Fold this sequence. Notes:
The active site is at 149 (nucleophile), 324 (charge relay system), 353 (charge relay system). There is one protein chain. By secondary structure, the chain is an alpha/beta fold. It has helices spanning 16-22, 79-85, 119-138, 150-161, 187-192, 196-205, 217-226, 230-244, 256-261, 269-281, 291-299, 329-338, 355-358, 362-373, and strands at residues 28-33, 38-45, 56-60, 89-92, 103-104, 143-148, 169-175, 210-213, 265-268, 316-321, 342-348. It contains 14 helices and 11 strands. Strands 1, 2, 3, 4, 5, 6, 7, 10 and 11 form a 9-stranded mixed β-sheet that branches.
Amino acid sequence: MGETTNPSSPSARLTVPQIIEKRGYPVEIHQVTTDDGYILDLHRIPAKSSSGPKQVVFLQHGVAESSATWLVNPTSRSLPILLADQSYDVWLGNVRGNRYSRRHVTLNPKKADFWKFSWDEIGNYDLPAIINYILKETGQPKMSYIGHSLGCTTFFIAMLKHPELNDKIDTMVALAPVSSFAHFTSPIFRLLAPFGKTLEKFFRMIGTWGWLDGEGFGELFFRAVCGYSYKQAKFCRDLIIFVTGPNPNNLDPAIALLAISNVFRGTSVPVIAQFAQNFQAGDVFQAYDYGKIGNEKRYGSKKPMEYDLKKVTAPVYVFSAGKDRIVSPLDVDWLETQLGNLKGSIRIPYYDHIDFIWGTDVKEIVYDQVMALLPPP
């Protein structure tokens, strides 16, 4: 995956375990059931050395993605592979609703009830279940956590909803972390955000709760648009950076099909709506807005609950981008004034939102620094 300069590479059709095996690494599939019944797939690359338990590093993807997003880049700059080469015990998460975690003990993903979740449920249920499972499975008292975008947001929620988890994290690395969403500049999102409530009501009315999965027709469409020539791949590369930020030379067109298909792995309508809600709310990090009546029932107030980030006591290192249109520097500045245990902050002036996972220079610019922050394997 990402090893070829051919945009139409068949590697785009491989599952995460198949990708890892193809690259010559062992892989395990683990299943975790949350307290509210969602069944999540975890993908593990066991440490190379078998001389006792190894330091655990867990990677969490962003919105509508899956564990595959960390493997879009070639082996030489893929973070899970780089960590595995250093003999870390690497785990890749998948949250409810994406194609690897679309199961439930009783609910049917073809029905609306399955999709009635927001950032809050992912943070309150998925991540605690995952963290506790991994630590029990490995026998380790602590683990390192690396998140990208919404993978950071849900971490903060987990630490606030379950304060005991803070002591189980030795290092948290936040890559382009979402919190306040007041200052994002992505043109299409800014155009649609004011209509968030209307659009959400429309999708409910037509019975759509889960979306943004490129499976089936979507994959055929992406392949037709992005996958048959370098010119098409470059067009799709430019489409990505139009949304995420202007740094075209750091995204190889050869991985454009893989990249764009990996931002469509499935999520719920409320998850997307919560971005618009936080944009409208201003400089605040808040829970899902159920409306005045719903908020009174859920939070005891007409407004959604605000998360107090000062109560996140796990040590956090923030990496942000100067040209990020989704997580703006202003929003990151606000986040850094709120976190209870901020250990360090690095801003890369020319980076945009997706450079942290798909950039051509991400190993030298980001990952080498990230690995230096982690406890030794």
